[in-house]
Structures are given as C-alpha cells and as structure tokens.
Design a protein that fits this description.
seven-stranded antiparallel beta sheet
Length: 937
C-alpha cells in the first residue's frame, strides 16, 4: 500500500513517555560508597582527545590522565622491501601441507621491519662491570643498610610493587639461614621467572645466569653454603615491559631454597621483602614491530581535611558525562565535579562546599615518563613536560587553578590553595604530533589555546557548554527495560548480584555506558578509540593498547550506527584513509599487487605490515573488514556523497588488492586467500573461511556501489565473475561450519576467536533468509566452541546468538559478560570489560549485542524484537537506527510488541517483520509512521 502524506502526525501519550524517561534518567549512573582502590575501580571521563581516570579519594584524590597522541615510536618504514619474492614459495609450501616450513620461511622473510634496537651487548657489559653502582653488591660483606625494600616476588612485574617507571638494571639482596643439617648437601634455588636476565650470586659466587623466559632453578654446591646466615644477591637486567623477580603466576607456589631431592615447602621461603638498589634506568632501545599508547601524567590532590568522613559517594552521570564526589566532614558538605570538556579541550575539576573558606588543597603533577619536568608558570599554573623514551613524541600539560576567595600560590612546583570558597582546576595537554608523518608540532599550543577559551568564563558557563555538546550525541537514544530492586544498589553490588537477579535495567545501563565510552573516546577530529579507548596508565600496556584489526578495532565501532552515534565514525574513517596510503606500499612490497592491504595490527603511525609471528601475524583481510564499516555507514545513512567521495574509492582499492591476490586452489579449483590465518587459531594456512566471507562481502558491496553511483561497469563485471569463484562456506563432518578449507575442525577447541562466523555477525554472508542450513551449521560451530570466553569474545557471542534468534542464550552470555571479573572474564568494578586484562572492545560489542536482540536490519528488512530474552519482557527504546535510513522507537510489554514509531530519514521503501507478521510500505523523507503490535497503522 502507498501513503501519499508527507508527515504522519503521531499521538504519543506524553505522560507515559515522561515517566519512562524519568525512570531512565534516574538509573543512568554508576555510583559507589567508597573511593577507587585501583585503576579499574576509577571512573573514566574523556572528550575524544583527553581522557582521565578519577579515583575520588577524600584526603588524596588521584586523577590519571592521557592525551590520545602520546605514543612510543616515530615515523618510519614498516615494510620489508621485496618480501613478495618469497610469496610463491610460502604458498607452495602451504599447498604441499608443509605448514611449519612455510611459517619458518615467512618469519624470516615476510614479517614487517622492527624499530632500530640499541646496543644491548655493550650495555650488559657496562652493567656487569658495575657502572652506576658503588662497590660489589654480590659480596657477602656489602653494606646495603641504606637500600630500600620491595616485595618479592612480583609476577606482574616490579611495576606493580613500587618501581612503576623502571626499565634497566636493579640489584636485589636478601639473606637466608641454613640449618645445620644442610651441611654437605647441594641446594636448589628456585626463583622461577625473572624478567629479563639475571646474574644470581650466593655468598659472592655466581650460581646462575639466564636471559629469557626459562624458569630459574639453580643448583648451589654444598661448599658455597654455611650453617647460619647466607647472602643471595641478584642483578636483574630488564630491557622492556615488566621487570624483576617474578616467581610463579600461581602465588600459592613459593620461591625458596631447599636441599636437592626435597621440595620448597621443606626448605626456606624467599617470599618476603628484599633490599634493592637501582643501578641504571637507561637500557638500550628494544626493537618493536609497532608502537604503544602511553600514559601522560597524574594529578594528585591533597586536602587539608580533619574529622570523620560521612555520606561518601562517588558517581558518574551518563546523561551529563560528569563524575562527582560527595562527602561530609565536620558538618560541611563537599562536592567535586569532574568532566572532560570538548568545547574547551580541558579536563575540568570543580570543588565546592556549603560553608565558605572550607577548601584547602595542594595540587601536584607527575608522570611515569623518566624524562619529565615540572615547572611553575605564574602564581596559579604549573606545567608538566614529558618526552617518550626512544621516541619522537613529547608532550606538555598545564594545570591552572581559578579560585573564589581564599589564596593561591605555587610552592615547590605545586599549586597550594588555602581557605577558598570554590576552586576550579583546568587540566590541559598537547603533543608535537601532527600526523603519522609529521611530528613538528608545538606541545604548548594545545594548552595555550584551551586556556584561552576558559579565560573570562564562569564555571557554570563551561559546564553548560560541555553538557550541551555531549548531549548532542547522547540524547539521540533512550532505553528503559523496566525497574528492579537492585537499581538502588551501588554499582559494584549490583554487578555482584546481576548473574543471579532479575535486573534488566542493568543491561540497559550497560548499553548506555557503551555509548558513553564511545562518545568519550572517539569524537570528530580525534584519533579512533584504541584497544583501551583513550584510557591507559601503563608505559607497556597490554598489546600496546593499539589497534588490533582482526576484530578488536572493528568491534569498537559496532554500536556506532545502530545506537545512533554515526558521527563518531569519523575518526575511524580518517584512520582508514591513512591506512590505505601505507597499506598501498605494503601491498606492493609483500604481494606485488595494486590496492591496499592491512594485517592484524596497526598503531598511531599507520603500520600495515605483518607483525609478531608468522603463525598469526599474516592475516590479509583487515582492509576488507574496515571497508565493511564504510559500506555500513552508507547502508544506515544513504549518504551518496560519502559513498562517492570517501567510501567507494577506499573499498575499490581494497577490492583491487584481492582481485590480484586471490589464487586458484590446486585441489578444488576455487579462488582462495593464501597465505593467511583464521585469526590467532590454527597457524598459517591456505583458505581460511573468514577471509572468503569478508572478501565476498567486499566484492558484493563494491558491485552495489558501482550500480548506485553508475561507475566502473567493467570492474563490476570482473568482481561479479570472481565472486562466484571464491571458496564457498562449507558444512563439515560434524555438522559444523568449517573454519578452514579442509574439514579439520576440532570440536573440543574452545578458542576465543570464532572467526569463521564473521559471515553471521558482523557480516551478512550467512543469514536465515539466504541459507538456513548454513546458519544451522554456524550455530553448531558456536555450540562446539562453548560459552566460556574472554570478555570481548563473550560480547561477540552475544551478537551471534542474537542473529541465531536465541535471546535467552544471549542473555546468559550478557550475564557472563556482566559478572565481577575476579581474575577472569567479565567486568571490573567500573564496568570496564575484562579480557582480562582491560580491553574496551567488550563494552562496545556488548552494547551492540543488546541492540541486536531488539532490532536487526541486515537481511533487507527491519526485524522487530527478533531475539527478545524472556528476562526483558518490558521495554521502551527510542532512537535505534536501521539500514535504509530509518530511526525506530519501540514499546513492548509482557514479551509482546505494543507499538512502533518509524521515522524515515531519506524516503526509502520500508519492509518490516515481527514474528509471522510483515508489512511493506513507501515512506517520505522526514515522515513518521506509527504501527501497533500487529504491524497495523
């Protein structure tokens, strides 16, 4: 049927909507009754460029902060020249079934270039010679009275027990008492892991030296040990990342010394405080394939409070992106507000109290970077300058205090404030990064510009401007899954109870938190959200906190379209443009092809070459997967200008690469992708299923784009022909979707990656509409894989089960994702996703997965409530986006659809389904259409 009216007036019950919004707004907070004890307790704020973690202590408040362009490394060539010469031999070996030989050759000749290393041999010689330390710490009579103490062992590195920013040479000393009955017996010194090299002495004699990851179990000749006191001295050389005497990951296993043939439990434990002395903090640079995201600094606030603390609460209001700390001391009510302003490019911290002259504090800046300097810049401003070790990037941060009444001064490079009524702190930061090829910028410029924007403005004005800008994104989507008794609990308690409670509102909060995190880490004009969004407190973060492109980078942006944050794709699209440039060079050097290629990781400098190891680093479909995001943006928005000028040129170049790269399999005659990898599982192979799904989707999307734009007819014909020849999805002997070209899946394999189901989600290569049997096979594969997984993998599986239309199974995984991490997968106290450790992709993937339960649009129609869990029987959602240029508001109750409000953004024909009902109708751009639960107008 056809509707000719341009705008359909919708009668919505205002009171019902108002009640729903009030319920939602009251439950859009994370809050706690105690300050953060560790980083994953702290609350994140960000404006896309600056990020901070708020610990909210009363006497001492800690705000750790980041600036998105402070990374290790520098502009350089990542590509191994002429690597393509070895491509035929690698392929030949794989076709012959010689995987290990292919991996060895590829590791030697086909991996990317690492950064230039320093002279380790010379540095080790200097450390052995005693440069930087007085005397001989190995000797028994060495005087270590003035040495500091440190807990030993520390499997996660000495960084976790007091040596936060140390790489280099450190001496450790301790003693043990040998009982009389050990006389004449050889001993075992069991230290297990030491990072990285050790020279271990007992009573002045070298008993062991190991460089690497091997366990340290040194035999000590009986003649070296005397009854009573004996001295152990260890020189530890740490080149990079965690350092120190690690011991055992399982802390129930002790390091110690014991007689040969016995056990450590029968000997002397060495788990205790040891003496230590830093010899050198400048080890030579370690060669790296790619760069790592860096912390910038720390702001520490010390308050002059006296008295009992009551009414403590810290919170994060998702509706305003403002964190708060409230408490009472001696009858005075104190409030702190923290937010990261995008309009003013500053982290803003406001202190107030309901009694005048009550705020006295000292504010200090510091940094983990060894090359850092604090300076006074007037009576109310200090600066922090940092230089990344062995890198090209440097940064400057400034802290300015504006007070109402009271006094402010800078003393010993700290801001001291006394008896103020109100205090506003402005924390700014910038680096010399301009782009991936240019580091000639002025770090001070961002600070000067930001502080100029706040000059003459009141705190209320800056706060109002911040909220308005933030809400221009956040307020586009609302969700209410109903109320529960748990919503009045602190967030940590609510998290503890979620798995065993009926609390659907917590899942709604998780959706909005995912949106909050994306808004906070990916604004137009910034870098895209990395593996930790924009938040990182470590010099050597897990996986470099960079961009892993075999799922994690893409997962970060899964919620962008469907959850009405389309504009936040801009940093990703700009990144793709940069990657296409370097990826063109990589395609030529490694495959001698046109187009562009991206392997499984990239960084600030847009590296695109294979990294790490050939058994997982040679994966060729990163460019094609990112091209899917370009196409999806068009599918949701219908923006033909974007398609013509930005998306299709990048998609076409990615397709040109595969047009040249695909090769005929000698056994089947199909076109296959080789060498490649089913991400991080199964080694280097010929023909992984995931690759073929992604390439087939890329070709299909390019074909559609050429038809829409009326361009490249000849290229379209080539892709149409080749698409038919690509190896198809196959069902294996266990009824599973094969992960590889051969039917060799292991049904007991519980690997975190489920890459061969890419065609189910986020792709549409396999759907119920196109191939129900293949969907059943994919479902069987997921059943074999099991539910238990890392955090981000749980998020991916939620989306799979949504596409399989099993909402209750998806809800089971939501509860697994939203359970206390406690050393495993789940969520930390601040609801950050735990791989573990923290990876933000699980937050984004989980939010997208919950949306997928409510609405799907990948099969050519809008599928309403396709996988509604029984635990979410009631809901009110507005602002969900669907492909075709539609915005959808839904209300359901008792597990059944009540009403739909559809808004057409570009006037396309709408096809909609709910259970066994369906409707198809024309729309007009700007029109709104109200349907009931029977899909009737």
């Amino acid at each position: 049927m056809r509707f000719n009216w341009k705008f359909f007036i919708v009668a919505v019950t205002i009171s019902t909507l108002a009640l729903s919004l009030r319920a939602q707004n009251s439950n859009q907070q994370l809050w706690y009754n105690q300050p953060a004890e560790k980083w994953t307790d702290a609350l994140p704020i960000g404006n896309g460029r600056l990020g901070a973690m708020v610990f909210a202590g009363v006497e001492n408040d800690h705000i750790q902060f980041n600036e998105e362009t402070l990374w290790t490394g520098k502009p350089r060539n990542y590509n191994r020249k002429g690597a393509y010469k070895y491509l035929p031999e690698i392929r030949k070996l794989l076709f012959e079934g010689k995987q290990k030989e292919a991996e060895v050759l590829a590791q030697k000749e086909f991996m990317g270039l690492q950064s230039e290393p320093g002279n380790r041999e010379a540095w080790i010689a200097e450390m052995k010679a005693g440069t930087g330390i007085s005397g001989n710490p190995a000797s028994t009579d060495f005087d270590d009275k003035l040495w500091k103490t440190i807990a030993v062992p520390s499997y996660e590195g000495w960084e976790t027990v007091g040596l936060e920013n140390i790489d280099g040479a450190v001496w450790f000393r301790t003693t043990f008492d040998a009982p009389q009955n050990w006389t004449g017996k050889d001993l075992v010194l069991d230290l297990n892991k030491i990072f990285d090299q050790d020279f271990t002495y007992v009573n002045g004699q070298l008993v062991g030296n190991t460089d690497g990851t091997e366990a340290r179990k040194y035999t000590i000749p009986a003649k070296l040990v005397k009854p009573g006191k004996n001295v152990i001295a260890i020189q530890v050389l740490n080149y990079y990342d965690r350092g120190g005497i690690g011991g055992y990951k399982d802390t129930t296993k002790k390091i110690g010394i014991y007689t040969v043939g016995s056990k450590v439990e029968q000997g002397v434990s060495l788990v205790k405080s040891w003496k230590y002395k830093i010899q050198n903090q400048s080890p030579p640079a370690v060669a790296q394939y790619q760069a790592s995201y860096q912390p910038f600094g720390d702001l520490n606030l010390a308050f002059q409070h006296k008295g009992l603390i009551t009414k403590y609460k810290r919170s994060l209001d998702l509706t305003t992106a403002i964190a708060r700390t409230n408490y009472t001391i001696a009858g005075v009510n104190y409030t702190r507000e923290y937010f990261a302003s995008q309009p003013n490019q500053a982290i803003v911290i406001h202190h107030s109290a309901d009694k005048k002259a009550s705020i006295s504090l000292t504010a200090a800046l510091s940094s983990l970077h060894q090359q850092s300097v604090i300076k006074a810049l007037g009576k109310n401003t200090i600066s922090l300058s940092v230089q990344v070790k062995d890198g090209a990037l440097k940064g400057e941060s400034r802290l300015t205090a504006i007070i109402k009444n009271g006094a402010v001064k800078v003393l010993n490079n700290k801001i001291s404030i006394s008896k103020a009524d109100e205090v506003t702190l402005y924390l700014t930061a910038g680096t010399n990064f301009i782009n991936a090829q240019d580091v000639s910028g002025d770090p001070a410029a961002a600070n000067i510009n930001a502080l100029n924007t706040v000059t003459g403005k009141t705190y209320a004005e800056i706060k109002t401007k911040h909220i308005k800008e933030y809400q221009s994104y956040y307020n586009k989507f609302h969700v209410d899954f109903g109320q529960s008794g748990n919503e009045n609990l602190p967030t940590n308690e609510r998290l503890n109870k979620f798995a065993t409670s009926n609390d659907p509102g917590f899942a709604a909060l998780y959706m909005q938190y995912g949106r909050y995190l994306l808004i906070s880490s990916s604004r137009p004009g910034t870098q895209p959200a990395n593996l930790q969004g924009i938040w990182n407190d470590l010099l050597t973060p897990p996986w470099g906190s960079k961009y892993t492109t075999n799922i994690n980078m893409e997962m970060n942006y899964w919620p962008a379209e469907v959850l009405n944050l389309s504009a936040l794709n801009e940093p990703l699209f700009n990144k793709i443009t940069g990657l296409a440039k370097t990826g063109t060079e990589t395609a030529k050097e490694y495959y001698n092809t046109p187009g562009w290629v991206l392997h499984h990781n990239t960084d600030l400098w847009n590296g695109t070459a294979p990294i790490n190891a050939s058994n997982h680093g040679i994966w060729v479909t990163g460019a094609a997967w990112l091209s899917q995001h370009l196409w999806e943006h068009y599918a949701f928005t219908g923006d033909q200008t974007f398609l013509r000028n930005e998306a299709y040129p990048l998609m076409k170049q990615a397709a040109l690469f595969f047009d040249a790269f695909l090769i005929k399999d000698p056994k089947t005659g199909w076109l296959i992708s080789t060498p490649s990898n089913s991400p991080e599982n199964g080694g280097l192979v010929a023909g992984p299923t995931m690759d073929h799904q992604i390439i087939r989707s890329l070709f299909k999307n390019c074909i559609a784009a050429t038809e829409i734009l009326n361009v490249d007819a000849d290229f379209r014909t080539i892709l149409q022909a080749k698409m038919k020849q690509i190896a198809p999805n196959q069902i294996g002997r266990y009824g599973q979707l094969q992960e590889w070209l051969e039917d060799k899946d292991d049904t007991t394999n519980k690997h975190r990656h489920v890459s061969h189901l890419w065609g189910v989600y986020p792709g549409d290569d396999i759907t119920w509409k196109s191939d129900p049997k293949m969907m059943d096979a994919a479902k069987q594969s997921l059943l074999y894989r099991g539910d238990e997984a890392t955090g981000w993998s749980l998020a991916w599986k939620i989306n799979f089960w949504a596409r399989f239309k099993d909402g209750d199974h998806a809800m089971k995984l939501i509860k697994m994702l939203m359970k206390p991490a406690n050393g495993g997968a789940g969520s930390y106290v601040n609801l950050f996703d735990a791989h573990p450790p923290f990876q933000i992709d699980g937050n984004f993937g989980g939010a997208a997965g919950i949306a997928e339960l409510i609405l799907q649009s990948h099969q050519g129609y809008i599928d309403i409530l396709p996988a509604l869990p029984t635990e979410i029987p009631n809901g009110n959602v507005s602002g969900l986006m669907a492909r075709g240029g539609f915005e959808v508001d839904l209300i359901w109750g008792g597990g059944k659809l009540k009403s739909i409000l559809l808004k057409s953004l570009r006037g396309e024909k709408c096809k909609m389904k709910y259970l066994d009902k369906e409707i198809e109708f024309n729309t007009e751009a700007g029109g709104s259409y109200k349907l009931n639960g029977a899909l009737k107008f």
